[in-house]
Write a structure and sequence with these properties.
Rieske Iron-sulfur Protein; three-stranded antiparallel beta sheet; four-stranded mixed beta sheet; 3 helices
Length: 158
């Protein structure tokens, strides 16, 4: 008497492979991977960015790495030519770790889709979503941000 060995059909193989594959894809897609932009380093407790790099009307995103956490911020110019620095987070949506994106003349929260005109000198709080001011000062031809100010924002990116 001989035993008959049956080979699984393509459909049976698919049924066994598909659920674990789908689960793996879902886990990877739902992760809270930190965004990373152009890295900046501190020198003597300050982060220095040359004005010629940010004084062109565009929005510039940066990452400062601290304790393994990417602390993201951006520099923008308003309609009057003044520079402003903000964390790439707000008090409401920071937990989603999505930050903001630029579309045309607006910066938009990737989570709640709240929009802010880049030309505005000050932004009004719109339902809790508003980029958090970081602060900084211009010294000669450099935008200078104190490392301690950036570190205070670490909690928004953990």
């Amino acid at each position: 008497m001989s035993a008959v060995i049956r080979r699984p059909t393509d459909f049976q193989r698919f049924i066994y492979i598909f659920p674990p594959l789908l689960f793996s894809i879902a886990i990877c897609a739902c992760g809270t991977r930190q965004l990373e932009y152009q890295r900046v380093e501190d020198h003597g407790g300050t982060i220095s960015i040359p004005l010629k790099e940010v004084n062109n009307g565009d929005v510039h995103f940066y990452t400062y790495k601290y304790n393994g956490t990417n602390i993201n911020f951006f520099v923008r110019m308003d309609g009057k030519g003044n520079l402003h620095t903000h964390f790439d987070a707000c008090f409401t949506c920071y937990k989603y770790k999505k930050g903001y994106m630029v579309e045309g003349t607006e910066i938009i929260c990737r989570e709640c889709k709240t929009k802010f005109l880049l030309k505005e000198e000050r932004w009004a709080n719109q339902g809790g979503c508003m980029p958090i001011d970081l602060g900084g000062e211009i010294i000669k031809d450099t935008l200078v941000i104190q490392k301690e100010r950036i570190i205070k924002g670490e909690r928004f990116f953990k």
